[in-house]
Amino acid sequence: MVLGHKALQELSKNRNYLLPQYDVEDMSRYTKAAPTWLHFGAGNLFRAFPAVLCQRLLNEGDSDKGVICCESYDEEVVTKFLRPYDNLSVSVTLCADGTMEKEVVGSVAESLTLPQDVVRVKEIFQAPSLQMVSFTITEKGYSLRGADGELLPAVKADMENPPEKSTTLLANLVGNCLARFEACATPLALVSMDNCSHNGEKLRSAFFQILDAWREKGYVSEQAYIYAQEKLSFPWSMIDKITPRPHESVQKSLTEDGLEGMEIQVTSKKTYIAPFVNTEKPQYLVIEDAFPNGRPPLEKAGVLFTSRETVNAVESMKVCTCLNPLHTALAIYGCLLGYDSIAKEMEDEDLRLLVTNMSRREGMPVVTDPGVIQPESFLQEVLTQRFPNPFIPDTPQRIATDTSQKLPIRFGVDIQLHRERGTAKELVLMPLVLAGWLRYLKGVDDQGREFSCSPDPMLEKLQPIVQKIPFGEEATEESFDALLEDKTIWGLDLKEAGLSGLVVRYFNELNQGQGAVRSTLRKYVSN
After folding, report:
1. What is d(CA 99, CA 492) in angstroms, rounded to the nearest whole number?
2. What φ, ψ does residue 76 adopt, rounded to 5°?
3. What is the pTM of this model?
4. What is the arrangement of strands in the sheet containing 100-105, beginning at the earlier edge strand?
């Protein structure tokens, strides 16, 4: 059978599947007529988390509206993996005991793409019923400028042209909010659900940079500008759910259940996707409760609504201490030691000690308890359940993507807190991870085998600096040019923090040649 409305009846005979407990086609009609929730970014995370949350509300009768999704980057995500299946998808939870929890998700009422469906998207924005527009477009999706600091050409063109000629997602968003003002002037919440620091502020900043440019050119009335300032909200959020690429073992299981067309494919935009998603069981979503036109009752599905300060504290706990720095440490050393699985890394005593001791000895002393989630419990779950789960097919190579963009938050924040407390020079393992990243940039593992570093906008600039230092040669701080002082990379000046010499010393030990990464790692994590 092919996944679709007709397959639901057949799947109802399989007790291993959770199915929509509502009429999917009726829900779709109600939602299209009076939409409440529009989401941009129709990839794996959306289908495994926000769409499933929406299904919880529908199943319990807490809502009769689904979510409309729109994809502006990779249209194949919609045209090949949602629409051919009546906008259904299968969400598979990979439990630590090896079992799979399978759920057919039917909460997507309509799937759109930009620019193809620009008229329909505008209609949705003009609906007074619309309460929230959410986003999972990755942190790069909010960037208006390139690595050189200059406006991206498409963004620059959008800022110069009137709103109706917009080509980028963010300009399209601003233009649609202006159209909403003209149509109904009803308030609206724009909610980033991306896994990045201060995501709501990133969205707001990009939004108003475009709006201000249009205002200067006379494209925006004063009343419309006031509407944007006073009636649009940009709630901050913290999202946490590991959703790796679809895996062959899940495809096999679904195929054995009789589902056809479950093949994993790679789109022309290099998105790994299938009609199913696979994900872990733990999940967290904390959102600032700032919804001027109301919102779906997502608290009934487990979402925590709270203040901006609390969201920020939760986000800092996760991103700076209890999860993301550990992920990056495993990514760097996993690539150097030839691993292709996070779970396998956690079976390596040296790597397990690296993330355990770093988080407990150096991270937890500066963490802030946000109140709504207890840091010790969260960290314990990460170390003992989430990372070691052998059935989550996550890789260090995936996590190593864009490391240069992650270090300032994942390590710089906590190092700065230590610096303020006068304990920065006592750090051992955080500097060891930073030195490990420099060693990683050589693109040669601990056995002397070349590997391709994961995509990163700074590779072209940074790799030549590191690769000019031969194996076995003692580097000095000057060998790295101004890299150690670059606050955009580390989040602070390592020289000013008194850590540059230590990072260079660690690098020299890691750079001695074959086996040096393992011996250096073991030397410092076992103390």
Report:
1. 44
2. -65, -25
3. 0.89
4. 17-18, 100-105, 89-94, 276-279
